[in-house]
């Protein structure tokens, strides 16, 4: 079976890539003799991320999971506290708060954006609610105005899980820079990559000093290196959340091409959305209700089968055509740990329905129109059959 590229290779769901000077920068880091975190390439990334997001402080972490764990500590959640979030998200969103002893409270999502339904949040709040986590699915913004108003009225922390949303915007502001704290991912499946990697965006300046301490194992080491103190010591809880300088070097090269990478992915999303439109018009599939490129970053493209059985058959058919398509999250409220550590704060009808029918198509930097056309042809062939 030939792929669109004319060989026997599978059209991958996602592929890591070299954008420019990644290997050169890694060699530079080695030659400088410092591979631990917070050296020249880390500082370069911090400056570029602060410029890109417009956040007063950006701190590289070894993963978005680490950034979320730092956010949970900074939000001060603990045993007995509750945190509002969607169930249609990656486990790290909930785990970060469960590790602090808090209870995730899952609220259903909107059918148009697949994001937290802001109209259901108020009814899920209790006197134990400490924070709201806005997950920007597929890089499409949550309804931040409503969430900001709720957080302000109830004096809650608003954390953005912007793992999928680097270069996505809401009213001209970068997602990740709107809430008190933002968490970004540079995992190899994301738009801008460093293998593993993430960043905490500190948008409330009151939290900056403590964020640096938590990231440095609970020490005031950052102040020591700035010459503010003559020795550093243990002053707070924390952990080793820094990435190595090799990760930062790779990321620094990627960030130099962030605009071009984003635009290419947006164009790929546009192609899928326009070419598959006839199937949606015939009622064979569902397509995203919002144009994913309008304020998004082209992170992913998905469609909806009519039921879970049809989805299973479609994914199997695409695999036979050398196309690696996948479904997405198993909703956290239905998982064993979700039932143990969390509770639902609303009916989860949309979440359950979406999770059973969603199919993600291949999308990566460098995917060709020929490869995308092969994917689309395979989808059409399935429904013709």
UniProtKB/TrEMBL annotation:
GO aspect biological process, one term: polysaccharide biosynthetic process
**Record has Metal-binding as a keyword:** no
Arranged from A to Z, the UniProt key words for this protein are:
Pyridoxal phosphate
Residues bearing the modification N6-(pyridoxal phosphate)lysine: 190
Is the keyword Amino-acid biosynthesis assigned to this protein?
Answer: no
Q: Which residues form the active site?
A: 190
- An example Gene Ontology molecular-function term: dTDP-4-amino-4,6-dideoxygalactose transaminase activity
Going by the entry's taxonomy, the superkingdom of the source organism is recorded as Bacteria
- Family according to the record: Belongs to the DegT/DnrJ/EryC1 family.
Which PANTHER family would you find in this protein's record?
DTDP-4-AMINO-4,6-DIDEOXYGALACTOSE TRANSAMINASE (PTHR30244:SF34), TRANSAMINASE (PTHR30244)
Identify this protein by name: dTDP-4-amino-4,6-dideoxygalactose transaminase
Q: State the species of origin.
A: Herbaspirillum frisingense
Question: Highest lineage ranks of the organism?
Answer: Bacteria, Pseudomonadati, Pseudomonadota, Betaproteobacteria, Burkholderiales
Q: Which gene encodes it?
A: wecE
